[in-house]
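Weekly structure sync, notes
Attendees: PL (lead), two postdocs, one rotation student
Agenda item 3: pending single-chain targets
PL asked that the sequence for the first pending target be pasted directly into the notes so everyone works from the same version. It is reproduced below exactly as submitted, 437 residues in total.
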Amino acid sequence: MTAFFFFSNGTAAGREEMSAQVRLRLLPSARCLFDEPIQVKVAGLRSKQVVTMRARSTDDKGVVFSSMATYRADGNGEINLERDPSLSGSFVGVEPMGLLWSMTADTLHKRFQKTNTLNPHVVKFSVHEEEGEMLAEVTNERFLIKEGISRAPVKEGNLRGVLFTPPGKGPFPAVLDLYTFGGGLSEKRASLLASRGFLVLTVSLYGHDDQPKNIKEIHLDYFEEAINFLRKQEKVGSKGVGIISLSKSGDLALSAASFLPNVEAVVWINGCSANVILPLYYKKKLILPALMFDPKKRIPTESGAIISKYAMHSPLEEENKATLVPIERAKGRFLFVASEDDLNWDSKAYMDEMVERLKHHGKDNFETLSYPGAGHYLEPPYGPYCPSSFHGVAGKPVLWGGEPTTHAAAEVHLWKKIQEFFRTHVSCDTAQAKAKL
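Predicted structure, written out during the meeting:
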């Protein structure tokens, strides 16, 4: 389905020169999944006419995000964002999805929040005369959950989360999504992974539903409970599960792979190689003390946000080595992903340390991806790039790093790699699923 919206050119000269009206089209459809690219085309302009294109959206917290770019039509009065460069604005050059990822918040230090996966991310694209008058507008509905996917809240034992199950008999590979360490629950990445054929459980560690708002320690038993819950699902064909993480949850994913059975594959994105901030317990016994940070080493900036990259103590110092997660014990595979411009902490150094340690132990159960110019928050593609936002542990806004264009390209590349990695390394046995049925 192609959406067409028509507005007249608006000037007497324009009406005389053009028999057609200005048309703004989103191909192949104005309705798509959040992680799908679209082709943006404009027709019916004057030859070589310069116009401004805009995108605007409001997130689930009511924050308005917008972008703009200037384009010059070709000799036929047409613009194609896959072919034509932006001359100025939120980005420059040929960036087919630039109007989406370059959207910035109208309030400083706000991250795009999409908490309700059942409602689409609605973006209004528009074309304007240089003087500002609107020539055409179209609405893009970007869905976070594919039709037919089941979304079920989970409240079983200590577990608090949401389970996403694809339609059909399966079997499907199982993935545990530890989105990040922030309180509450994030469903966006989990619902999109389910839309790509994975059975996904996303869990909250604290701050959701009836969970405590603050915690002083973490218990690995919670993640063991989550893994066992996933493996019991009727449509799961995998003997074990995959785990995807980001930031602080990276070391939790490493710990799950190192201390618990049935973890076949871990995607570690911009995490640490040591257990950070809170001590980790298993069966009521301390298994990893916490690596801490020095608040005095945080760097203030004019925007009011801090750079925290240099504040963490080194896990390689003799007094901190006990905090290192013993990943050499893990039987599953790792995909380590590091952004080289991460300003939250030195993800690249942590990744390099883990690679050296695994090699030292004769292990080759890992793959690495390194993204120069990308920042801390690597998410599913085509959402607004986040330069800074409030950090719960720091208690103030932090800079996440990254150059927007490069960061957006990294998200597109990584999203495909994550799916390939899990499809390859999370076993999917039809007989296994039938036995459960």
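Discussion points:
- Helices lie at 12-17, 98-101, 188-195, 221-231, 248-259, 347-360, 404-425, 430-436.
- The chain has two domains: 3-12+19-143, 150-436.
Action: rotation student to compare against the earlier draft before next sync.
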